[in-house]
Design a protein that fits this description.
about 260 residues; 6 strands; 6-stranded parallel β-sheet; alpha/beta
Length: about 260
């Protein structure tokens, strides 16, 4: 997928996805669902979640992702409720060990040190967010509770690729005048959205960020680059890892010289 070649706008606030972007949770999702463990969910039926299927699950709320996954296996005797119950039990055992991905700690600490407004917009359930991040507070504590989760009752959030979660995070958590979901917005509000930068790893999340009118840095698993995609949205920048992000390209303060090669 070709990225945007236009000059990058000056950024004033940053929104992070979490799963697969900040933490290596996608490996756990895949391992639990597939046959890597002989008694795991799809493995018991001799089935596998391929990357074409996984691409459509990433970033979606739990139930929506589960329904999408199971739609590819109509011949197996597994209900959505049974699938979610089995998956959640297996995942809960692994969340306390999930590691940060490269470049995350450095970037979050850098933005925090320079008072750049930051928030998390994740399709993950709130209870899962807490389990995934409890042991990683050196990073996630930097957000000061500015986190929107897919099941937050205070908001009626359509899952990615709908733009809802990023618009709500910018408006409710960072007090940016970006307008409301589903309503006409002014030119000033459009400009305010263009000042936002979304970090995403999922294809639906990249689409959601662009549909929100924000810039998107896409950090996909290399497998996603081979997934057929015919949508109109294009990431503004594609990186292999957050370690490759250069803040000053986006009008953000540069890393200190001694951090350039960390």
């Amino acid at each position: 997928m070709a990225e945007n070649t236009k000059p990058f706008p000056k950024i004033e606030y940053v929104l992070f996805d979490m799963d697969g972007l900040m933490i290596d949770s996608e490996k756990i999702y895949t391992d639990v669902t597939n046959y890597r463990y002989i008694d795991e969910i799809l493995g018991k039926y001799g089935k596998e979640m391929t990357w074409d299927i996984k691409a459509g699950c990433m970033g979606k709320p739990e139930r929506q992702a589960g329904e999408y996954l199971l739609s590819f296996f109509p011949d197996i005797d597994l209900t959505l409720e049974d699938y979610l119950a089995q998956r959640n039990q297996l995942q809960d055992e692994r969340w306390p060990t999930v590691p940060l991905l490269p470049g995350v700690k450095k970037l979050v600490h850098h933005l925090k040190a320079h008072d750049i407004p930051i928030a998390i917009a994740t399709g993950s359930r709130r209870r899962n967010y807490q389990m995934k991040t409890a042991h990683l507070q050196a990073v996630f504590g930097c957000f000061g509770g500015k986190v929107i989760c897919g099941d937050d009752a205070a908001h009626s959030i359509k899952g990615k690729p709908a733009p809802d979660i990023f618009i709500i995070a910018a408006k409710e958590l960072l007090s940016r005048d970006v307008g409301s979901v589903g309503e006409l917005i002014t030119e000033k509000q459009k400009e305010e959205r263009r000042m936002g930068l979304v970090f995403e790893d999922g294809l639906p999340g990249m689409q959601a960020g662009k549909r929100a009118g924000m810039s998107v840095v896409w950090v996909p698993d290399y497998n996603l680059l081979n997934v057929d995609y015919s949508g109109d949205e294009r990431a503004d920048q594609i990186l292999k890892t957050l370690e490759d992000f250069v803040p000053e390209h986006w009008g953000l303060p540069p890393y200190p010289l001694h951090d350039k090669h960390i």
